[in-house]
Structures are given as structure tokens and as C-alpha cells.
Amino acid sequence: MEIGESVTLLLAVCISSLVLLSAWRQIVRIRNLPPGPFPLPVLGNLLELKANKMLLSFKKLSEKYGPVYTVHLGPRRVVVLYGFAAVKEALVDHAEEFSGRGLLATVDDFVKGLGVAFANGERWRQLRRFSLSTLRNFGMGKRSIEERIQEEAQCLLEEFRKTKGEPFDPTFFLSRSVSNVICSIVFGQRFEYEDQQFLDLMHETSVPPLTCTIPLQMYEMFSWIMKYLPGPHVRMFQNLQDIYDFIEKRIKINQESLDPANPRDYIDCFLVQMEKIANPSSEFHFKTLIMTALNLFIAGTETVSSTLRYGLLILMKYPDVQAKVVREIDEVIGQNRLPSAEDRSRMPYTDAVIHEIQRFSDVIPMSLTHAVTQDTQFRGYTIPKGTDVVPLLTSALRDPSCFNEPEKFNPSHFLDEQGHFKKNDAFIPFSTGKRVCAGEGLARMELFVFFTCILQNFVVKSPVAPSDIDLTPPVSGFANIPPPYKLCAIPR
User: Where does this one sit in the cell (predicted)?
Assistant: First the structure.
């Protein structure tokens, strides 16, 4: 054998050995994954997952495979965390390893890793620090966030009064008011409720969010095929583009009138930061601003308005609970001033009811997908870097080891024997760990002020008997959408 042939053979053996070693390592990594049902080619575990009952499917799999298991959404491998202990251990005790943002196929092609909600790595860290600081300090004009919420609550009450006690659907009443709060913060202004551009935006954000419809859940599994097919995802992408275009125009208006010494809103603060850094490689650039503002606008509208909508339905089903809240409002606040966030500490029952509304309504049961930032050892398993992880928030909010009646609405979950408010670590509707919702403080303030303002001025009653009110969400997946209903706002 000639020397050249020997060298070629040696190289071939070396390359083959490296390929086999790499394949062996992959097999070992996969073999040490959390257990789960065996996936079929292409379909994955589609036969074990009911698209219209995804949360129930996840629960049944946890009963068979334990609180940490692997499931395949089509060809996509995902690790699921079920129960408060597993969710906390991952997101809090192993916070850095589980801090990545995983795939959300329905929006990933659109957001392209931009915006505070979907960014990763240093981009995410910079945007999150800036957003938290800006929302916390709110260096935008002379009015505080609370004053803006109170102003909008007054506008909402006026709309309720116009109904004159007749039945009405509160959906757009609530979404317009909540959206105006985030518009005031991001864009520096609120919109009149009949403003056509504002109504168009409300319509575009009212489409069932992300993966909560069956076709969009299928898109999560088979995006590589469905992106080329017609369906509701096409409409959703167009709605996102319309919101994107609106925000882009608003930013350009701000740029023309920007006074760096007096920022008026979140957009101004971001523009000032862009000028301050003035570095092409910085994460503070025009497209990131558009996408972050879009993140804040959608998240700041849908989750709070859905919780308010669910809460009013719950209070109509349980009029005795509503009556106790009203009594506490009368005792602590009275009728002569607006509720404020500082009242919460003196209103334990109302605080407990709002917490229980958030727990029971469970409007974001699945959380946004996480991803591990490195090969991670977790509960004896190896989760390879980049693996998507779904922490099921609903499994914490309804964990029987943390709540004694998890499937029932019961404000006592947050009250001790003396009637004082009682914290519960498993209360994580905003998620937990490094990816906890950046707008948690804002949302909590909105829920308290809106609920107390409404009940300070109205008794909410259903046109049907409380016993006939069904609290079951008609759509349940990434989000729990409250069932449609009408209410009567009877002035007190």
C-alpha cells in the first residue's frame, strides 16, 4: 500500500471514529433525557396529545411519567415541567440554566429574536434591565403610573354608566381601558374609545392569542409545513404586521419631537438610550424598539383584560364573595375618593379575592417556552443545550399540595385563620425566576385599582342565575380564554 493510500485510509478511519463518537454522545445525551412516550417519525407524540385539550394531555402524561418528562410536538423535542416543586426547582434554583427563551413557532419568524419577551443572551439582559428600570422609575412626564390607571378607571366607569343597567358584553370595555394604560406608558397618550385607529388595534389584539386555537397549536408542531398553507395563522401574522406598522409610525412621530431632557413615554426613553449609546452593534436600535413596544402593547392588553373579564364573571357566580369585597371597600375607602394601590395592605379579603381570581382563571397556563442555555443536569437527567422547556404554570396554580381545593374558587387559599392575607409561593401567574413577567408590578396595580373602582360604584349582576354561569374556558391552550357573557352594572 502506498503512503498516500495509507494516509487516506488513516484519515477515513479518524473521521469515521469522530462521527461515531459524536453519534454515540448524542445517543447518550438522548438516552439520559427525562422519560416520555416514544415518538413516531414526523408526528412525534401527536397521538398522545389532544390539540383541543392540550393541558389535560400534559396532566395525564405527568401521571404516567412523573413531574419532568419529554414529549415530542411533531419532530420538536420538549421537556415539560409539571407541579410547583419541579417548576420552582428549574426556574428559581437553576435560574441561569433555564433562562433561555425557547421556540414559539407562531411568532418566531415575525419577531426574529427581537423584543424583550423573545430575546436571548446579552440582548435580553440589556433590554430587560432597561425596561424594568424605565417602568419602575417611570421618568416620563409628571404623572405616575397609578394616576394613569386611576384616570382610565374613571373613563371605564363612565362607559359602564352609559349602559343604564342593561346587559352588555364587557369584553371591549375592559380591553380598551387596559390597553389605554399601556398606550399611555408606551406612546405617551391615551385614545378616545371611539377612535377608529384604536378600535382597529383592539380588533387585531382580540384574535385568540398564539397557540390557544387548534390550528395554531398544530402550527407549533408542524410550522415547517403549515407556514405554506392557508389558515388563521395568516390572519394573525397580518394583525401583528399591522400593529408593527402602527408602532413604527408612532416612533417616527416621537423622533421628530424628541426632547432628551424631558422624555414623555417609554419610546422617548428608548430613543434617548439609542442616542446615548450610538453604537451600531448595540441592542438599542430601531427594530428592537418596535418589537419591544409591540411586546409591551400586546402583553399589557390581553392578560390583564382577560383576568378582569374572568374576574367579573366569577364575582357574578359568587355574589356572596362580591358582597364581602364591597363591604371592605366601603369600610376602607368609602365613596369619596379613588382607590389607590396603598389601600391593598388594609384590604386582606379583597387582596385574597384578586389573587384567587388570578389563580383560578389561570389565563396563561403554559407560560412562554423556555430553553436551557447549556447542557443541564436536572433531577438525574441530562437536558441538552438549546432544548425547549415548557414550565406549566397551571400545574403550580392548581397543585393540590399547595392549594387544598385547587379546582374550586376559594379566596381562603390566601387567608389565614385570623383573616389576614397569606402569601403562597405557588402563586406564579406571572411565572418566576429570571424570566418573570417584566410588567408584573403594573398588572397587579391595574387589577387592584380596576376591580375596586368597579365594585365601589356598581353591583355586577348576570342576566342568568348564578348557578347557570359556566366558568369553563371555551378555548384552553397557551391561554385560557374566558367564556363570552353579558353583565348588568347596577349603580350603587
Answer: Endoplasmic reticulum membrane; Microsome membrane
